[in-house]
């Protein structure tokens, strides 16, 4: 889950000068913040620091305490015969490639489809609120459950998708969606797009409602073609919201785990960076190596998140 | 019919076709899960689009599995505790962040935002160690504690937004009367925050109910598993022979409550999602 950088409204009038009451309020504020800060330190900050540390050790899952420092050997090591470590592991680079491919394709599809659905649902018609509620269903279904439902629908022998495609004459023989190395990434993308289009649609609908109506009236009076209005007016005005939605989805897609784990298990043709890291951490019990992979993933996400925060802040400054 | 009317009618037809396609796309997979779950295993391998002879044997079978019922119980306990914990911690934090001006406020908000962007796997090994050190491995407490990493940032952010929107006269009156911040929060502001609490609580509940990675890693035995893990681990005689009817019945059972919640609270969920721009 994550949140946007929408400015939090703030009460400027309330006690701006340093008074005893004010001082007491500030003390109370820190007291009120403490439980949350302690909790986040315990579950986020400290574990993250430990993960960084583990990535520089040979820790194993059975005994994380008895780890010894081995420098950057988990990342890269030259030992007489050749290089070893994650940075020269073809499996890791395969996971990086898969994750990037998944992110680019699925986020691209989600943003385009989300925008189209939002445009469709911004038209007033009877039953619109029911339709808006019904399209939320994919979002509410647990990822594990949607992955299972889709793997049944995409089943090679008895799946309804193959059945439908054969009866429509699109294919001659059933496709092994989740097993075929060329198709399995597409199966993952299909499920992810299905699940997350509602979220993008909601953000786009909210943004569409805030567009100024006078531009549209002017365009209508001048008899400008609706498509031209879309490209010249709607899309540029929607860009900020579109970027926010895309960045949320990118951050989310880079850490993708559930859908791949359930749909295609540990198959190397769909393995993402998260699946790779967890496999080393838990299945191979190699906490040091797995933590190094987690750290690399964290760095990638952190760079993108910082870029987003930087852009968000710049945007706020422009607006202010 | 004049060409203009014809064009209008065609446009209208096209529009409703698009809506129909959209609805089919959004709803069909869940509908198909229901269709499958109502078939006896003998009829499973003939594709059918309608419910012909509803057969409840899959539901009877899954409801007789003690481990599945246990998983539902665990999921409920975990999700409700997470919601309570997250709402309590974020309510006090949101009061500080939304109503009091102090140095470091921006830094705390940025930190909270940063945590919300963490990839979960980045804290997996460190959190594993913390949980084992606290003796919580393979208990529901491990999940309740770890789920705050993705529920807290969101609940703090949304409640801070709502808190900041409340009129300040109320609070000034309370301060004049000598009320402590705690009394101000619980007696004056809390009654006004119920709608926001319901929205954020609901979203936190859904997130906790659906979580998979931590649940898979921090629990080990059947008796401690939550629903997503239980469903992911349902297996048949061989990896290629999953009991699909049973799986779909389990899927429908754990999803129907969520779907009903979403349909009832649609407006609130949408306002919460767009206020905090959360993703699920």
TrEMBL record, chain A:
Top-rank lineage group of the source organism: Bacteria
Intracellular or extracellular location(s): Cell membrane
Entry coiled-coil feature ranges: none
Gene3D superfamilies: MetI-like
Ranges where the ABC transmembrane type-1 domain occurs: 96-308
Family note: Belongs to the binding-protein-dependent transport system permease family.
Protein name, as recorded: ABC transporter permease
Organism of derivation: Pseudomonas fluorescens
From TrEMBL, chain B:
Keywords for this protein: Cell membrane, Membrane, Transmembrane, Transmembrane helix, Transport
Major location category of this protein: membrane
Pfam families: BPD_transp_1
Bilayer-crossing regions: 12-34, 76-96, 108-128, 140-164, 185-209, 244-265
Cited InterPro entries: BP-dep_ABC_trans_perm (IPR050901), MetI-like (IPR000515), MetI-like_sf (IPR035906)
GO cellular component, one term: plasma membrane
Entry's localization field: Cell membrane
Annotated ranges, domain ABC transmembrane type-1: 72-265
Entry membrane topology: Multi-pass membrane protein
GO biological process, one term: transmembrane transport
Annotated family: Belongs to the binding-protein-dependent transport system permease family. MalFG subfamily.
Protein name, per record: Sugar ABC transporter permease
The species this protein was found in: Pseudomonas fluorescens
